[in-house]
Amino acid sequence: MRERVLRAVADFIHRFYKWILVAGLLIGIFMGLCYSRLGLHLNFLDLLDKDSPEVKTYEYASRNFGTLAFLFLVLETDDMELGKKYASVLSPRLMRHPQFVKRVYFQHDVPLIIRHLFYFLHFQ
What we know:
mainly alpha
């Protein structure tokens, strides 16, 4: 059975080899044209909707600040003690995810931040 099938395939190839070569050439040309249009987008922003307000905010921040490797959480409350309590609970929870959060700096000294402010500026 298998021998008959293989013999039939061999006879078909032998009889129509010119058509098979032309078909292979046409398929190759078609694939070459498709390849010229193929693009590889490795940036995750290419996968997102450009009209989304979140994407626009991200693009604005990365254009103006150069990088978004830092995340600053600023708490604004009417009750300072409640804000401090919330921050003291939030800080250890952030540190539970070391794959995302490398360091948590908590309760910064404002004059120290102002002295080192130029570390965060990006000049072009």
